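Example (one chain per record):
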Amino acid sequence: KDNASDKFLEIVETIDLKAFFATCPTLEAVVTAGEKATGVIASMANVEVPKMGEMVECEYAGHRFKLFRMPSSSRAYPLALEKKAEAYCKMFRQLGYEI
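Predicted structure:
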């Protein structure tokens, strides 16, 4: 298609989350931008896809983590920079960082 929406993207290979967690055992969060990427991880963890700017608690292969869905950087979904910054500040606060 001739737009930037990720719904037309074909996933050729998904991440091996179990192997990823093995290399990063202290990982607390997975952060995605866009509906498709978020949907892939949510499906693997058998959880609902969070709304943009929100988070869901997940468990996969014995590893607990937070899945954050951040605003897409795609030109198909313009969002004011201030709104994107608010979403990222919220995420960092939820992870225990002071902003």
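Caption: The first helix runs from residue 17 to 23.
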